[in-house]
Amino acid sequence: MVVLGIESSCDETAAAVVEDGRKVLSSVVASQIERHRVFGGVVPEIASRLHSEAIVGVVQEALAQSGRGLGDLDAVAVTYAPGLIGALLVGVNFAKGLALSAGLDLVPVHHLRGHVASNYLTSPGLEPPFLCLVASGGHSHIVEVRGYTQFRVLGRTRDDAAGEAFDKAARAMGIPYPGGVELDRIAEAGDPEAYKLPRPRVAGAPLDYSFSGLKTAVVNLLHNAGQKGEDVDIPGLCASYRRAVVGSLVDTFMKAAEETGARKLAVAGGVSANRLLRRELARRCGETGRELYLPELGLCGDNAAMIASQGYYEFLDGVRAGADLNAFANVPLDAGFPMEKKGDCL
Predict the structure, then answer these.
(1) Which segment of 200-204, 262-266, 316-320 scores lowest on mean pLDDT?
(2) For residue 57, what is the enclosing H or E element?
């Protein structure tokens, strides 16, 4: 079965063709980073306009690279939630028009479910059940993947997501957007003991995350140093901050693994590319005899191959959408489709 995936939830316009949920025939991503860099972050209106400009060419290129035409496709899978609403609407409306004109089934895909599926593309032998840490710019979830379309969220962030915390701290340090990636690189040369930073915890919810206090601690440290005319060891601060964020992610994730008895662990989302996170999880899983699955670096960020992969499994589960498909800025990962009829949309 061949699925065309379309992704436009934030600042990447992407299309991919995937066979049987596991084999990537093509994957094309048009990044908007350079256009947003001058603003220090993603500007939703600009993102939507750039998606509109790029989506036709990106889909055409994905089909050309795959060697497949519209007549060879079985379905079109598209991200419908969560994300920037204007950006999502570009992808959803294009996918609806394409599916209708080509007589193809339309499959709505939750963006975070797609991130989980990125591991199926990297590790063809991986099958549910397993535990997955989904860490990205807007989300930090610990998810029990019970089946390809059955999920239970065990923990989540109460405020800033891990990726957001990295980006905001990097911006405070004067590191250009996208700051999280550059902070990770700079931290490799820094001393993680240079600064003592807090490890926030959520009272009464040991599997939840909170990063806003940690981010604030770094901002205050920088302000105090500036007022006193003191120099800041930026590599050391990057390393100390990275260790605090990663330590929180790993400790809580491993606690969830112990509580559930999970022996297979996976990571997904943009933060899964973080060097220290990958090293620490490999070490902890090695020490406890657990299997660790990591997406290849090219599949950590937003892409359409993961959407096509999850779309395949949603299709097998009978999920379909019609011309009334809408986009949603926020939908729970463990909620089924359609949200409109269940009244569960957040």
Answers:
(1) 200-204
(2) helix 44-66
Are 1 and 20 a contacting pair, CB within 8 Å?
yes
Strands ordered across the beta sheet of 23-31: 23-31, 12-19, 2-7, 75-81, 105-110
pLDDT digits (tens, 9 = 90+) for 209-234: 999 999 999 999 999 999 999 999 99
- Adjacent-strand bridge partners of 264: 291
Neighbours of 37 (CB within 10 A): 12
Note the pLDDT tens digit of each residue in 132-141: 999 998 889 9
**Per-position b or e across 96-108, b if 16+ CB within 10 A of its CB:** bebbeeeebbbbb
Mean pLDDT over 186-194 rounds to: 97
What 3-state class would DSSP assign to 307? helix
Distance of alpha carbon 4 from alpha carbon 329, whole angstroms? 22
CA distance 91 to 216: 35
What's the angle, vertex CA 240, arms to CA 236 and CA 245, rounded to 5? 145
Indicate the average pLDDT of the chain.
95
Q: Which residues contact 242 (CB under 8 A, 6 or more apart)?
A: 166, 183, 184, 187, 192, 274, 276
Delimiting residues of CATH 3.30.420.40 domain(s) in the chain: 2-117+300-342, 128-298
CATH 1.10.760.10 fits 2-117+300-342, yes or no: no
Query: What CATH class does 128-298 carry?
Result: alpha beta
pTM across the whole model: 0.94
Name residues whose C-beta falls within 8 Å of residue 24's C-beta, 6 or more positions apart in sequence.
16, 17, 18, 121, 305
